[in-house]
């Protein structure tokens, strides 16, 4: 499910979910866990902080341009905030994608290690059983 919402700058959030960009798009997460809305609230608060930070930086940037008219200042701030939030979304998307890649890599490595451990246990158990059988045979 995809929800588009605005962040107060006229930009639309297209991260695939809530304004926080966690991508759950519903009550249940990717792995079937139920975040009870806490992850969505956290994402919303983090994104709101990012929007506020972008607006503060835009204001600081335009303070260094005293020759701008009020309308020009507002336009520069709007463009600055929009660009900053676009970059933040792109960065967040790359981080989310990389985290998913790493999760799959680690899961594959874990499966391989588990397979090796089971194989070693079976071989070790077979060797122990064979040694006990041979010892019992020789003890006769």
Give a structural overview.
Helix 1 (38-63) crosses helix 2 (70-138). It contains 2 helices and 2 strands. The chain has helices at 38-63, 70-138, and strands spanning 5-6, 12-13. Mean pLDDT is 83; it is low at 1-6 and 11-27. A hairpin with a 5-residue loop joins strand 1 (5-6) and strand 2. 68% of the residues lie in helices and 3% in strands. It has one domain (5-103). Strands 1-2 form a two-stranded antiparallel ribbon. The termini are far apart.
How large, in whole angstroms, is the Cα Rg?
Answer: 28 Å
Q: Strand count, sense and closure of the main sheet? A: 2 strands, antiparallel
User: What does the overall shape look like?
Assistant: rod-shaped
Q: Give the class from helix and strand content and strand pairing.
A: mainly alpha
In DSSP terms, counting alpha (H) and pi (I) runs of 4 or more, how many helices?
Answer: 2
Structurally, the number of domains stands at: 1
Beta-strand segment tally: 2
Q: State the share of residues found in helices, binned by percent.
A: 55-70%
Please report which band the strand proportion falls in: under 5%, 5-15%, 15-25%, 25-35%, 35-45% or over 45%.
under 5%
Q: Which blocks of ≥5 consecutive residues have pLDDT under 50?
A: 1-6, 11-27
For the largest sheet, list the strands in their spatial order: 1-2
Span from first to last CA?
72 Å
Mean model confidence by pLDDT: 83
Order of helices and strands: EEHH
Biased composition (Gly residues): 17-27
Biased composition (Basic and acidic residues): 1-16
Coiled coil: 85-116
Region (Disordered): 1-36
């Amino acid at each position: 499910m995809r929800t588009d919402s605005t962040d107060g700058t006229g930009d639309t959030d297209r991260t695939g979910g809530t304004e926080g960009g966690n991508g759950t798009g519903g009550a249940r997460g990717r792995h079937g866990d139920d975040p009870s809305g806490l992850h969505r609230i956290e994402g919303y608060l983090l994104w709101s902080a990012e929007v506020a930070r972008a607006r503060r930086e835009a204001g600081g940037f335009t303070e260094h341009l005293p020759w701008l008219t009020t309308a020009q200042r507002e336009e520069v701030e709007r463009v600055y905030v929009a660009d900053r939030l676009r970059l933040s979304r792109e960065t967040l998307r790359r981080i989310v994608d990389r985290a998913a890649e790493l999760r799959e890599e680690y899961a594959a490595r874990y499966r391989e290690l588990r397979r090796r451990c089971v194989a070693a246990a079976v071989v070790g158990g077979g060797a122990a059983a064979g040694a006990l059988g041979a010892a019992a045979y020789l003890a006769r």
